[in-house]
């Protein structure tokens, strides 16, 4: 352990130049580019630096091993920043994602029990059906020669999957168009990002037009999601068999809510239903969109993924030839998983993570007082920021094949978090990623379309691709027979 006399304090750290009173606030006004500004500073200042926003001081940590250490010490040593819970409560989202301490442990137990083998088997069956609908949608676009807004289509896809898994509700936005719940959910993540990084909670004193629009969306969600919760309660009442084998997350959550002495309140039911809807929609859809973007730029990577899909799938006459069940061979998808992992490395769901120290602690040679706000620079620490030197390339690594990357060593990536609060939906997200990746490689050729603007990132609590357009072509090559 470091001798106390050799420890640095926060005052010893470098900081980007700011202005009197407001500090660096003006440099962070564009919340959609927040991550870029922090990553630029990380290149200049290294493992630790301070960012000042008015009276707030944020400690930026740009080191992969320290990120692991911090995440491993949750929930006892670190929590989400203190303004996260109030923001989540205002939005009706104080579920597993924002909960801390015993409240989090109680809800975590319900989530883990819900994501059991029986539920996952049901999930994979429904996932395969929804992927078939996405295939049909893209085949129609290919036949018409239309450019596809893949981010929008994938949002429909993940909404359909998540609504079915979470609520037992057949939204079918891929065939019917936009769903009311989806339209209102789209406003939530941007609002969380804006409010967490705002210099002060202005919306508690006056409302901007976007805040009033958000209020209307939240009120509509209360009605729509509330109706689905009522429907699920009625299903449980009229079908006693569901009490032994619930068919969706909401039914399992309601059963936990009904148990005598339950720690799951009615508000917890609503908040966790909203949490699983949000977590299952934007994050997976955006990751899939980035995967398609990178495959469009790297045909060699796409063809390696296709060869693997062809080798593993059954005879083309089989009903699961075009859209396989991705859980059938999870340990054999080495090129597919390498492509997914590389997408998550360069375009992680959350390039930054906002936390707060709950007690005095020491990281390397730095003394950190309790209540210090911390920004974990996850992408920068992994060397996968576009501002890294040298800039990272999209190079999937198939470790089984002995692939490697020339250049600097890669830091560990943490796309689903780390430690006790590892994302419980990780396996569900990976199943969706694999299902679409295999379907895409099996059935289509990709044409990346140049636009008026280059494809770029927008930070909206997750990394959203802007200006991404792809044209799909039905695959020219014949489908190879299985090598199995």
Q: Can I get a quick summary?
A:
This protein is α+β, with helices and mostly antiparallel strands. The protein is 47% helix and 11% strand.
Key descriptive features of the protein:
12 strands; 16 helices; Cytochrome p450; globular; five-stranded mixed sheet; 484 residues
* CATH class placement: Mainly Alpha
Strand arrangement across the biggest beta sheet:
1-2-8-5-3
Count up the domains.
1
- pLDDT averaged over residues: 86
**Low-confidence blocks of residues:** 404-408, 479-484
Molecular structure report:
The protein has 484 residues and is α+β, with helices and mostly antiparallel strands. It has one domain: Cytochrome P450 (Cytochrome p450). Helices cover 47% and strands 11% of the residues. It has 16 helices and 12 strands. Helix 10 packs across helix 11, helix 11 runs antiparallel to helix 12 and helix 12 runs parallel beside helix 16. The longest helix is centred in the middle third of the chain and has 32 residues. The C terminus is likely disordered.
Helix and strand arrangement:
Blueprint: H1 34-45, E1 48-53, E2 56-61, H2 64-72, E3 78-80, H3 84-90, H4 101-114, H5 117-144, E4 147-148, H6 150-167, H7 173-176, H8 180-185, H9 188-197, H10 209-238, H11 249-258, H12 266-297, H13 299-312, H14 334-346, E5 352-357, E6 361-363, E7 366-368, E8 373-377, H15 378-381, H16 426-443, E9 444-448, E10 456-459, E11 463-466, E12 470-474
Parallel strand pairs: 2-8
Antiparallel strand pairs: 1-2, 3-5, 4-12, 5-8, 6-7, 9-12, 10-11
